[in-house]
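Case study 2.
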Amino acid sequence: MARTVKCDDEKLGIKILDTWAEAIDNVMEERPDITAFWLLKAFQVKRAQTVVLPDRKTLPSARLASRLALESVTDALEHPDDVVLTSIFLPNELFQAMGLYPLMAEALANFVTGAHAEPSFVQAAEQNGVPETYCSFHKVLLGGAFAGVIEPVRFIANCSVACDANNISFKLLARRFGCPHVYVDVPPEYSEESCSYVAGQLEALGTQLQEAYGRALDPDLLVEHVARSQRTLKNLVRTLPLRPTRFIKNGMGLEMQHALAFHALLGTEDVEHLSKLMLRDYREADGYDGLNLLWSATAPFFSSPLQRVLDSNTSQQIVASDMCFDQVSFEPWAHEPDEPYLAMAERLIKNAYNGGAERRAEQLRRVAERCDADGCVVFCHWGCKETMGASQIIRQTLEAEGRPVLVLDGDGCNRANFPDGQAATRLEAFLEMLEAERAEKPDNDEEVA
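Prediction:
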């Protein structure tokens, strides 16, 4: 009976969101201002809910991650004059130190999808000539701009890591909005020369931001933000060995919220606190002996069939994702926070998503080893050529370590492109295979005997 009630509540919630999204769609073309107003109101209500009525079934750190991820978008939309439109991989400490709000394309698209409003945005993009095969995250961004729902921003900054859509989308939006645009070119391999090259670009970005927004950048404040970033990433690494034997009550949506928080707000006091809270929560969490699944790339958090398989399940859990660990280093950093531009440049060049796919595969291997993952799902998001190209290299690398890999095709943003039932069936079959392989392995006592 309880499960029937839960399913009925879930269907009712989806129906309400679909009805609300249809109402937005009906006015979006003629009154984009109304669409923007109600979308912001929806985000504000959800933000209030994360404070007043958080999900008590999750750990305290998870509740904080949900709030911070939503705040990263809502706060930016509430302060349009102080927004910098950017991509998920560009360091944000510069913006934070100047009191600016980085609005990440990926974060905005995620929450538009969470509000069931992405079909109208995708349609607006395609009606303006954006190809159907283009990344859905960027289609939501471009569609919102073309329709007039997303207001013009004063500044756009992005980098060459890792998404090829960045080069097109942000240039196009800069022309449309008539605003300055800085593109940070990131070499594929790290050296002190390449680090100085990227650091110079970041320092020039800081100068242009000061000119565009008419405010000064406090160098000491920038050092503080970079120092927090390094401490936060170290804490993240320290959580890895705690995860496999603890029930962390994770899920696809939560993992994406962690990823957004650890990118948009990395360097803030809130996110450093989040990393400390995760350490405490994981140490104190209930014991766990189910399957540990590593997730690669974005996740279709809106998929009810996949949610029922993975979210807060005591038989299997998402133990980690590479979107949360793309910036961490398992060796000491070459540059300390007192060299903030070099430190940010080093982190950017060494990002697991930068350069060849072998680097990303190796980072996944290291994460899998430290959190004792039983297997890995590589999600090939619609239009993401980088992940599609890397998927077989990741498979070969992890399977050589005895960790099976499922390559799952779909869309992490546009539910119209995601085959719910087929994906759930494939995932369930993969989990059954992992369970069977685990059952065949001798336990430690047998090995000793």
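The chain has one domain: 24-440.
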